[in-house]
Fold this sequence. Notes:
five-stranded parallel β-sheet; alpha/beta
Amino acid sequence: MKYFLLFIIFFHSLLYSQKRTTVDSVAYYSNLVAENINNNKYKEVLFYTQKSIDFCKKNNKTEAEATQTYKLGKIYFDLKLYNDAIEILNKSILLFNTISTKPNKKVADAYYYIGLSHIAKKNYALAENCISKSEEIRKKLGIRDKANLINLQKGILSKIKGNTTLASTIFNAIIAQPDNKVTTNTRTEALYQIGTIEASAKRYNLALNYFNRALELNKKTKNLDQKSNLLLAISSIYERMLDKTTAYTYLKQYLNLKESIALANDEKLGINDYENFKETQRLQETLRHEKENKDKEKSEKFSKLISILAIAIISILSLLSLSLYKNNIIRNQTNLLLKEKNNELILAKNKAEEASRARSEFLSTVSHELRTPLNAINGITHLLLEENPKKSQMHYLSSLKFSGNYLTTFINDILEINKIESNKLEIEYINFNLKQLLGDIQNSLKEIATINNNTFLLKIDSAVPENLIGDPTKLSQIFMNLINNALKFTNNGTVSVITKLRSYQNDNAIVYFQIIDTGIGIPEDKLKTVFKSFSQGSVEINRKFGGTGLGLTIVKKLVRILGGQIKLKSIVGQGTTFSFELNFKVDSKPIAIKSKIKNYDPAIFKNKKILVVEDNKINQMITRKMLTNKEIECTILDNGEEAIQILKDNTFDLVLMDVHLLGINGTIATQQIREFDTTTPIIALTAISLDENREMLLSFGMTDVITKPFAPEDFYTIIAQNITNS
């Protein structure tokens, strides 16, 4: 009986202990918080979150306290109580930093929501600082979970600062991403933001287009705050366009939605609930201070007992302090000097970055603006050469054609370097056949090899896998630049391209490349400078052989981007060797070898109808002449609005659409055409800039892209291919 009673007492104590642990714990309060969020009872949510924080403080669980404090700050943010959100989230950051100075995802999230709170309060400088800190921590951690959201906020801040060009670039990049559950809300906001930019520039039709696209995407997200902003923006546009009836309709929808949002927010947490919670918190803080004061009084009494001993120790230490005083003064002076130098370095760094950005933007703008007149020069030269000019004129026209081609190459090289230095060059990972790629390059350069009476050899290791995964476009650029240089600086010699397999393990192949020539060679004192922009061996070499001095700069940067390092060996009078290694994935499925044939049957053009949408009169004339020379019926328009209307009423075999048009630009016009015509090929004509790319243009519904200035044969080939495919 005695043992039975002991067993009952022990069992009861165990149950009580388990129950207490279950009730008073972080997990218990977290479950109550989640339950009350689902029931929309935010008064209880705040209460139990604070209970969880108090429990963590009482039990010295600093990491859990930091996490729960972060959650409380996030709840305040969700309730749009931004002052409280900023205060509490900053507390959570301090708590996390007391645990560890290493990067932490929750610290990154806290900075992100503090940044959004500052944006809501219009403290834009503070917001930009917090968003940057969040991005920096995420980069250190190697996570990209909020990359789109952070880019969106950077775009919004750029727009607020007046840098609408940068903001538009960011928003367009977000819009161009594929639609999915993760990106829908961000893409909607980007469409809204770029719509406001267009509205500010008084491009009301374009602004409406963006707002309506955003409103359509918003149906998927059910973001009511976002929807209310869109309704108000659309109402404002119609009011500016003097369509009062439509403006009033959208304004009424906006006011009704705003009222329902306010009612929903009041249901979450009424003003009385919030004030009561804050009053309770103030009372608890007061009690905590009173307890701390009592503890302080006890410690002061104890301190008085120690003070007598302390005086004796201080007397001894004061002698030592005198000797340290002078050292301290010297140290402070040194620290002040270091601080001044550090500030000078930061200022110099900022100036250098600003100069680099300005240079990049200037070169991009200049190269872009030169393309349109250069297209006219090359086009007119081609037309004059086709019209059987006099023998006395042939020399001048040939020189003009050479100069145009040279300038085109120079502009393309500048734009390529700008893309690399602006980190706007992305690596592709696609299947390609290395032997076919090198064979095509050899065939395309045979004519250049014969000019200097050179032998061009291609030696490919039979062990190199045929079906690799990598970036064939950038690899082609590397080889074209290196082989062109080798052929240019070699006379009556040999240029060899050698490919060897270094290793092949676990579907990874390391391939070694060599480009060897027996040309003039490079002096030893110039070996370190040949890879710099606009640099060649000497002024005499530049005068004799020509060239921009940008080819090797591009090669070095592209090899580095692909994960390799280019090496150079050269002896004057004996030749030069460039070498590098690259790592490729190997595809288990072999790919078919396709021969690149640019030939076409001219008969395909006869009696075809092509619509040209181009607002430059000279380009209109050139394009018309080049098309009519191939017996093509040509219709010219100078704006996107008329192009949309004529395609509704007429049928064309193909459309050549300039991207940059007055009014509705070419991309928006194409997008609207695709709503009723999905089959007619639409080819973009663009003097492509640093911020444009082929994928972005195709995303608007364009079938293909012709870049100005274009080679006539490329122009005809692309048109022939698209007519054939349609």
